[in-house]
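Box 3.1. Reading complex inputs
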Amino acid sequence: MLKGKKILIGVCGSIAAYKTATLIRLLVKQQAEVQVIITDAAADFISPLTLATLSKKPVLKHYTANSETGEWNNHVALGLWADLMLIAPATAHTLAKMASGLCDNLLMAAYLSARCPVAVAPAMDLDMWHHPATQRNISRLQADGCYVIPPGEGELASGLSGKGRMAEPEQIAQWLSLFFTASNWLKGKNVLLTAGPTIEPIDPVRYITNHSTGKMGYALAQAFADAGASVRLISGPVSLQLLHPLVQITPVHTARQMHQAVMERLSQADIIVHCAAVADYAPAQIAPQKIKKQEERLTLDLVKNPDIAAEAGQRLQWHQVHAGFALETDHEEANAHQKMLRKNFDLIVLNSLNQKGAGFGHDTNRVTLLFRDGKREDLPLLPKNEVARIIVQHLTQLLQTKSHVV
Ligand code: C5P
């Protein structure tokens, strides 16, 4: 999977730098092309000669390659050359610089110039890792689109034991292979996705709606498209924009319009995800004129909207993967589980309203994934685009499993 991939590896000053030598060896063995940049501090931990020998390329450290001839290391060219930039080990200091956009060495200049995906493999002592400042920087980097290969737990160079040691070279190499395969996984597959709220008109100026902003659904659309799928996004009214060659948006307002748009495209879809917060009821009649303020009380007559997910579940073909969301305020898991069965979902994503930073309008979300076969996965509070990426990975696996069961 790594054959011919161009990987720019930044090495920072941490004892874990010795593991990067093994990582480079593994990547070169898999025929990746590796270019190493080191910081001044990294050179105290590992010899550039070692890294240059393993990567089969001179190691870059400063802007100037040869001050006498004026030869320089072009950080912009490095950023454009790479298919992926990996900073391993990434120290607390470098993570902080990345989060703030500081540019005081060749590595940071290459990071800021890079147009390719960037991943970091942090390494530090456990208290440094858990420090709110580091965690803030990690969240910031994730929000900026960086991937974080989480550190492992165990014995640390300080003698303490806990979380902070850089992921093992084999794990990082596997992460990289998965990363490069993931972007092709869904090539040629069709995804049908609903997002946002629906609005149900009462009269020409008023409507019933909910707090959904569509952020989770749009993040999913982006993640599916990043994985190579053609995405049809049926979107209620939101103030988000998504410009992606693989995403086509069909804007709708009401649940009935969303229902029609989904049913028209259901049979062509490989994966169907219902992320929209569909209004359960709509006014039975839409008043043709603005309703006048008269009596002390006003009763609205509401009728049930079609349950799009339940109907899609009934019409589902054996090879299609079907998923939805649940937002519960009581007996969360039991209710979500029942919903999964009723709507014939392979996976239901349980949103928590009780968690700070999760739910409507936030850029982060905390969810539990419940699978049809009884498996479950509790995710920590993560940026919505990271939650989306994990959901897409699971749905891809489910699709692969279904296509093998012929
Ligand atoms: O029944 P409930 O609204 O809690 O179910 C939530 C799931 O069902 C979500 O995936 C939502 O998008 C979907 N749904 C739907 N049509 C409805 C109501 C919910 O597709 N009318």
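In summary: Residues 194, 255, 274-276, 278, 280, 305, 307-309, 324-326, 339, 343 surround cytidine-5'-monophosphate (CB under 6 Å).
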